[in-house]
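User: Predict the complex.
Assistant: Input components as received:
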Amino acid sequence: MDKLFSEEFVILDGAMGTMLQRAGLPVGQLPELFTLEHPEILEDIHRAYIEAGSKIAYTNTFSSNAHKLFGSGHTVDEVISASVAVAKKATDGKALVALDIGPIGEMLEPSGTLAFDKAYDMFREMLLAGEKAGADLVTFETFTDLAELRIAVLAAKENTLLPIFATMSFEENGRTFTGALAECFAETMVGLGVDAIGVNCSMGPKKLMPIIRRIGAVTPLPLIVKANAGLPDAREGHYNISAEEFAAEMSECAEIGVQFIGGCCGTDPEYIKALSNIMLGRKRAKRVVLSETRLCSMTAIVTVNEVRIIGERINPTGKKRFQQALKESDFDYVLAQGVSQADAGADILDVNVGVPGLDEASLMRKCIMGLQATTDMPLQIDSNDANAIEAGLRAFCGKAIVNSVNGETEKLERILPLVKKYGAAVVGLTMDERGIPETAEERFEIAKRILADCESYGIPKKDVFIDCLCLTVSASQSSALETLKAVRMVKEKLGLHTVLGISNISFGLPNRELINSTFLSLAMENGLDLPIINPNVTSMTDTVAAFKLLKGFDDGCQSFVERFAEVKSAPSSIAATSDIFEAVAKGLKAEAKSITIGLLETKTEFEIINEFLIPALDAVGDRYEKGEIFLPQLMRSADASCEAFEVLKTSIAKKGTGSVSKGKIIVATVKGDIHDIGKNIVKTILANYGYQLIDLGRDVSPEAVVETAVRENVRLVGLSALMTTTLPAMAETVQALRKSGHDFKIMVGGAVLTAEYAKEIGADFYARDAKRAVDIAKEVLG
Amino acid sequence: MEKLNIHVDIHEAYRYMGCCGALDANLEKELQNAAKLIENSAQPRFIEKICRIDRSDGIALIGTCLKLEGKSIAALLHDCEICAIFCATIGNYVEALIRKWQLKDLAFTAMLDACASSAVESLCDNIEAKLTEEYRAQDLFLTDRFSPGYSDLPIFIQHDFCATLDTTRKIGVSVTESGIMIPRKTVTAIIGISKNPQKHFITNCQDCGLTKACTFKEKGVTCYGQAI
């Protein structure tokens, strides 16, 4: 294996599926099952590729996972052992055998219904079988979901010693079908420590070259290209270039510095032979890799080559409303904070979900899963709890920042191995067992120690960020200057990127915004790269924009000009009103909010709900029922009422006098179904009537519904299903709820449901729309 | 791979949201915005295959593992020796867009979802138009478009259908355990190709499985916008 990495070029094999179809494999049948019956055909194919010059044979195990083999009568172990054995026999020591693993064939959550752990188990099963059967390495190929590939790599790292090759399929724009960006793929795989990465399938060599160049520019890892024989036609999937054209196009790999080269769909031993011939005697160019600090999600990369904003708002510290949302598992509230910070210009999101008494690791995992489904940004996992940090790192697909370690040895020893394992960057706070040193020099010494420790764990210097800590200036006047001095020392003498939470500086002072933005300017001038701020405070993001312009990071002042050319608020075409009924009826959010704030001066929260909001919504609901208005108008009114409710919830949370809840209702889209817009509409409307909604999301198992219903002592459960294929899961959930013996009412709804079916499966109510769901809730809960 | 355009019909989207009657100006503006967002983030892709039909045991497509069960598909293809099968999608970005808007504005999300449905329909219309043109030149005629889940053609053939077209690799479409295609805004369909002109399949409410709970019907219209 090691010898291969020192070769100039390593020729891989060509297509397997194409060859098997030529040998009689019917379209749509699993190739693995075909070769179980015809091992001699498989052996001949391997042999032909080796004769053509291939040094690594990919086993015919691409789809040998438990999902694809389900119902075939064959086990994963059986299929993989047989395929590896045939490959070993054919190679006869002349080539290595790579265990070939493709995607499971089902989409992961949240797009699909495949859970992380289930995918992990399926990959592990294949990997263990492959290693046992004697494969020399594993190659993951044709992946389009980076999250799935990452799970596969983790399974390989944690269960086998096999070297890992990983390739994905990209479209011309450098993204996979699911949107994963080539650079994000590279950064994520480097972090996990794979042995070689590259591209396969999707297009011919010519169109893959720009993509492998992009990948090569951001990673020093050996590169792989396994291209199709040109582009397929949409009808029959025939490919359009000859073996000679293929080889000629592939020869560009030499200039790019690609080491492992072969063919994918449409190629055969002729193509591999032509490729072997053309590469003979050629030299592989030396690659130039950009050594910048990059963070990424699946879909976006953030290079820390100028000031980048870390949004601080996902943090319950000192925020009663946020704490309440976490306690009630109201993740929409948390995720909405992420989306609004993204819209306001954050580059990275800090995620802190530590609330005493709650399971932080579980909350962290859920928040990270939700955030990466709804925003594009890299995340900063912010916790004191190593378990929560690991849960976050495991769930996040991309390159995250861990916030934080400090000079305490125990902390460094616990956290740094996690940072290394998951390939994250890390923030080191300049404090230790003795607290925060007063002087810049002492903080600098701690930073030096943190850097040395990080490097000893193999974390590259570019991924170590230092937070010199910002103290309250009203408590100690010189502290601001010490912090600034420390930032400059760390930046200039250690060459590290720096992080700083800004808003602490102004605690206890009037006009905090002014102090914050001024201190931010000073800090950036002293070398701060990653300010942690509230991006929804315009003066802060404006300051960053002005700084970038003045420091020459804004070409032609374009971003700055665009920023201030935007019309911040479009004038409303509808006249404002002071009547809450009218505000709700017309869906005027801002008015609903300000009127409610006014009403709070004379009314209690409950009075406002019962005397104003509910009657206002009832009036809208009646018009909806009569067909005078439709869903969009109903939802607009609900949105306006929602703004009013938010005012009331915040007010109650501040007083700490409980909640506005008139009773708990569970809503869930049943197992196997992923359609949730209808369920979410019902949820929003019900929440506007003062009920506390426990939203279990979509694809929810009957067990999870029962468990939550019993634990939370819920009296009304709403189930939704949109597909005829998922109605049985709804029936199953109703049965499971009945079997639990707990006393609750069940309402069901969804496009394919009828009142008869609802009755047939034993539900108490059929909620044909959101209005009906409200009537049911009133009947059950009052 | 050949590219086909998509177009969102906001009046169609309006109907998909269960609305009928005139579209007011505010809503029209919002729907136009939603349509624009969908058109910009859609990545229309399709894959098709022309298959010969084997009738020795029900309807099977020669050279594939696909069997088409049910009386209605047999009726549709009764006069055809070959048929086209295709899978069309507007891609994953639309899904991400809809997920994001769910957190910001649910009413607008419902509009986006409806516009996305209209967009994938328009892609199917374009594929069908292209096939019609191609086969008219050979004096052949197309039947209506028919999808798994219509009438008695089981939706569970989605797995085999997508495997036959190799949709995961070619256009990024996979099928969940419960038969839902991902991305959600994806359509699979069959169109018969015949030597004789084909009559339209009459689509009336009686054949529809949802007729008992249809809110359109209560309002005196069909789901495709015609008065009953």
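Strands of chain B lie at 45-54, 59-61, 67-68, 80-89, 141-146, 174-175, 181-182, 186-194.
Let me know if you want any component modeled separately.
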